[in-house]
Amino acid sequence: MQTRLSNADVIELTAWRQALHRAPEVSGAEAQTAQAVVSELTASRPDKLLTGLGGHGVAAIWEGAEPGPTVLIRCELDALPILETGTVAHRSEVPGKAHLCGHDGHMAILAGVARGLARQKPQRGRAVLLFQPAEEDGSGAAAVIADPRFAQIRPEIALALHNYPGLALGHGVVQPGPANCASRGIRIGLTGRTAHAAQPETGLSPAPALARLIERLPPLGTGGPVTDPAFSLVTITHARLGEPAFGIAPAEAELWATLRTQTDAGMAALVAATEAAVAEAATGLGVAISYHDIFTACTNAPEAVAILRAAMAAEAIPEGETEVPMRASEDFGRFGAVAASAMLLLGAGEDSPRLHNSDYDFPDSLIPLGAALFLRCLADQLG
Q1: 51 and 142 part of one domain
Q2: Binding site annotation covers 106?
Q3: What are 109-133's pLDDT values in tens digits?
Q4: Does the annotation list 303 as a binding residue?
Q5: Is 56 annotated among the ligand-binding residues?
Q6: What CATH number has the domain bearing residue 38?
Q7: Range of the domain at 218
Q8: pTM for this one?
């Protein structure tokens, strides 16, 4: 299988990536992005094209003539609800939304893989390219897997990459074991009773409990190196107390925090400790707890790592150095429950703005490199 894109491919895919960057859509709202993907993939003549998968997901399937494994390669459709402050000519044209995690580049890489498959289908098994919705809020992979049509693309091997600022441009890192932390958002609602600000003793203010929780929750995280299986972190992200008025002692408050651990077992323990701390701090108040943006830990399977490492060697991608697992979470972890899966980090440059920075932009030079990596994986596994 030819693993190299032509110069014309690279030029066209770069322009396509930049068009996606101008028109970002956030988690669950990727309708136009999905349509752009379908239009691009149709020209690559897949044997089957699934749309509306787990929301706005798109999956393209190329079938070999001989029996073999199903290899799924996954990218993401969604952007972030952040105002872009960069000055690139192709910056976001949608106020308050931008591709600041590089998912536009990941899509362009898979579109390049599709072009390679159009020129030479696999000899055996099946190649599946999955454009997954709603990665940023942690809901997309679960929705795709729960879709009844997932049975049509259920893989034995699942692969992905993520661009990684801080790592030398074009260098790769992948290793067995923990790859991304588990995380979840916790929203704590506190309810008391309002009073006149001149007579606060006649009400029940949640202010003292809110203050106690802001102080007590972060120390529940052990901190330390993320390489330690006991690593955990609690980050306060939002707090609100009452109404913006001087005459009312408040009755309501809410506190948002993100819980983060290296392992799923660690997350269960941190959740229990957090809920116990809330119960102790909020005695006498109404308490409502809800969880959001739930990500399981992402663990790389050794056999999938071996596939990516072999492709790195064949395509002369240098091995880089960076701390893994990433503290950041990845929805890709859920595919580890259904396949031997692994995610590779592909360096976006040591001096690049970091992921989710308001001025981040995916390096277009990674498009042909990422496509070559995945085409080599498919050639090695499917012929």
Answers
A1: yes
A2: no
A3: 999 999 999 999 999 999 999 999 9
A4: no
A5: no
A6: 3.40.630.10
A7: 182-295
A8: 0.95
